[in-house]
Specification:
heterodimer; A: mainly beta; four-stranded antiparallel beta sheet; 0% helix; 53% strand; B: mainly beta; five-stranded antiparallel beta sheet
Chain lengths: 114, 113
Amino acid sequence: DSGVTQTPKHLITATGQRVTLRCSPRSGDLSVYWYQQSLDQGLQFLIHYYNGEERAKGNILERFSAQQFPDLHSELNLSSLELGDSALYFCASSPRPEGLNEQYFGPGTRLTVT
Amino acid sequence: GESVGLHLPTLSVQEGDNSIINCAYSNSASDYFIWYKQESGKGPQFIIDIRSNMDKRQGQRVTVLLNKTVKHLSLQIAATQPGDSAVYFCAENWRAAGNKLTFGGGTRVLVKP
């Protein structure tokens, strides 16, 4: 158990809908990262927050947004969902914003868009 | 953009033998590398990391080797056990680009009893 929690574990929704995925980092970690894992694209970095501020963006679509709250939990919002958005979404946390340190991953949320 | 890649999608290993998983990276500016293990239905689990100023680092039953000349990374697992069956990912971090990891495509390791 990494100490990172994600809810829900599974989510099934229809195209065009909007969903919110939630992540709680390890106790004491200020950084939260979001990743998308699909069969054809592998693990792709989406976005990084540190202590409430956005630090880096990766291959995140404009239909997707995220935020980190004062209690350090983070939410990833996916809107106007398409079939291709079906994937596993992971969040990870680490203690520091940059520098050389490992990230600890949560169990993921499996999103199925029908 | 530059990315990390893996040569072998599947590696079958006899229990007790040593495993070697290889990874090629293309960004010569990357300064930190991590190996993750992902079991079915779970998130990636940190195994071992190495900084670019090192060429070898050992953990418990695992060793990571870094060859910056040819931009190659490998993970060696000693005395492979059934619990080592999983998908292994290498990831690189370029500090100047922030603390975001670029992952390789993954190698599945199957341990035969």
